[in-house]
Amino acid sequence: MTQTCTLTIAALYERVEAIFLKAGLNAFQAGALARVIVAGERDACKSHGIYRIEGALRTVRAGKVKPDAVPELLPTEGSAIVKVNARGGFANAAFEVGVPVLAERAGKLGLAALVINDCTHFSALWPEVEAVTGEGLAGLVMCPSYATVAPTGGNKPLLGTNPFAFGWPRENQPPYVFDFATSVAARGEIELHRRAGKQLPEGWAIDANGNPTTDPEAALAGAMLPFGGHKGSAIGTMIELLAGIMIGDLTSPEVLDYLGTTTLAPFHGELIIAMSPEAFSAGRPGNAFARAEVLFDAIVDQGARLPSQRRFLARAKSETDGITLTATEMEQLDRFLAH
Ligand code: NDP
Ligand code: PYC
């Protein structure tokens, strides 16, 4: 039987933060990273939990992210476009600087966007979309990654796994949130299959010759496939346009050119859009939030589940029972802290 160890959420946070502080991150960067990584473990999202620490540390050691960066909120007084320059640090710290201003502008104007530039980004998007719904706003979050996905009909990596998340606030219960890679699966899932010595499901990837493969090594050397064929391919392309080119930052192929590898966390920009349902529906019949509940009930009444319900259940369990890690994972955390 696999040996395990159970920690409280706070205890895991303390360990992860200490690892990043030891690696030379300033308190702001270390705290922001520890928050999203521990949230990933807490919500049973292993592909963006503690597994990501290694890559983040590698990126710091490679000099491709500034561990002591202080994000800068740029002067955009009154504009619907809020801008934060991450100054070469991690996106998470920049997001924490920008989100209060984003919420304030969206509340005032009905709609606002937060543009983050010059950041390293490796995390799941739902912590960010939940920060937006926590302000009573609907949110859309997206960013490129690095070229690892072949466009539908193509056979070489070009698009990123380009995550896309949406959130809708709900009263007295967790928000409606979806968050997914626009590839069939996140690249982190392929890496986790490789580490576990498991084959991939059919349809996830092609090898370097463009042939379908279920071998994770061959998939990592070849290309991943977009979800939903041409539809996912188009959404992935939209993300390159909006959260790359439109915000004056790198596209996924440019990120790969810049880094020269997919073993480091990608450097690019991010786009977060916040919308006020009250402002959009003003003057129209019905209450937007109440009408949304009718829709959610109708979905659930068919026996379907809402996205993020698995996550919220995992979160509730972690809050009462703690987070269980394998002995190997615990040893890895100890090793990171020792070096
Ligand atoms: P999944 O396919 O695991 O899940 C996608 C979404 O669908 C989740 O919101 C999930 O909710 C929901 N869902 C899953 N099954 C069902 C179901 N049967 N009914 C209703 N909803 C369902 O996600 P991916 O593997 O595509 O992505 C994982 C993570 O990777 C994301 O958080 C994404 O942000 C991150 N990522 C980050 C990248 C980056 O560059 N920073 C790049 C690519 C991905 P639930 O969680 O509750 O199952
Ligand atoms: O899982 O696809 C992924 C990924 C890429 C960058 C960060 N996460």
Automatic annotation (TrEMBL):
Protein's UniProt keywords contain RNA-binding: no
Keyword Lyase applies: no
GO molecular function, one term: oxidoreductase activity
Keywords for the protein's UniProt record, in alphabetical order: Oxidoreductase
A Pfam family this chain is assigned to: Ldh_2
Domain of life assignment: Bacteria
Family named by the database record: Belongs to the LDH2/MDH2 oxidoreductase family.
The protein's name: LDH2 family malate/lactate/ureidoglycolate dehydrogenase
Lineage: Bacteria, Pseudomonadati, Pseudomonadota, Alphaproteobacteria, Hyphomicrobiales
